[in-house]
User: What shape does this take?
Amino acid sequence: MRIAASALIFALLVPSAPAVAEMHEVMMLNRNETGPMVYEPDFLQVAPGDTVKFIKTTSGHNAATIDGMVPEGNPGFLGQINEEIEIKLDQEGFYGIKCSPHYGMGMVMVIRVGDAARPASFPADNVPQRARKRFEDILGRNGFGK
Ligand SMILES: [Cu+2]
Assistant: This one.
């Protein structure tokens, strides 16, 4: 009886509240050690409800979702050049992000929200060659290679 009462008190004292939402930061860069026009990091694993902030580390970049590379029904987002947007990601899935002026140069990144599997059409068919190469590299490095 005494043990049961202690267990009950313990259960009442320890909250089973959901984990606190985290803020993740991504730098938008002209260059790092991996090459020119990059997001750092270029892959994020986040929990539903977390926020991602894109930092204007060097000028001339933005962050925008790529058509066909967001979870079903998700509206995506579009940051303006040099805008430090904060995006709250509630929907599980894979998000393909591009820098609009440097998409053709391969400035892309991947955000995975929750436990989603890589969709068959990720990257999408119309992704430029250098961006496609970066996507395959990012996904392969993080355990989502084909
Ligand atoms: Cu850019």
Summary: The radius of gyration is 19 Å. Residues 37, 61, 99, 101-102, 107 surround copper (II) ion (CB under 6 Å).
